[in-house]
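Folds abound. Consider this:
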Amino acid sequence: MSDLDRNYASPFGRAGARADTAAVDAGLRAYMLRIYNYMTIGLAITGLAALGVYMLAVTGDASLAAKSATGATLALARGQYLTQFGYAVFVSPLKWVLILAPLVMVFAISFGINRLRPATAQMLFWAFSALMGISLSSIFLVYTHTSIVRVFFITAASFGALSLYGYTTKRDMTGMGSFLMMGLFGIIIASLVNIFVASSMLQFVVSVVGVLVFAGLTAWDTQRLKNDYIYGYAAQGGEMAERAAITGALSLYLNFINLFTLLLQLLGQRD
């Protein structure tokens, strides 16, 4: 492997060094595969949760529709209606709990990972994925289902290419981290400001810059995870490597979700 020191002094000479390198290569592949498997399962849970919530929240039967405080039926633009469950999820104050819950879970996993058993951290990751799906379910009310599917596959293809680049490139991307983090904080601040000013131009700029930032973070995180294994977890393995795989999956998952939602704002067709 190019990332390893080829001048490593093995007690068995070059043959021993090749064996050690091959062992790390195999371990790295297994480690990265575990990260991608966790991320993929998390995305599947998110998608199923989002679709399930939408199906429970919307009905074509007016008799099952929820009523507003004035007694009016809560109808959607395309002749469908919000159910009582839909009202609770999308209209009532509960929606703010569902929106903020994934953020709380991210901090719980990120800051508590070293105190958690791997099985507990894994379950928290699945729970976080489900909560994220619930909070994202409103996209089915805003965008056409065809455009959601189209943007998802665009995101998947882009994410795959960017992650592959981060894994295979010989360029050291370490210095990009601080720059990308500054861009991320800038996006967060601009998004908060736009809540109050409601500028479509600012939203467009945030979406474009956000796509570039999360594209860079996808490649950077992939290289970081690869290097973390080679220089930090190769010899240790066990629970430490398993925790690192879960937090690595969380990082890539968040990059994918943010890339998807930003591309949806740019390319999605509103219903």
Observations:
- Residues 1-13 have pLDDT under 50 and may be disordered.
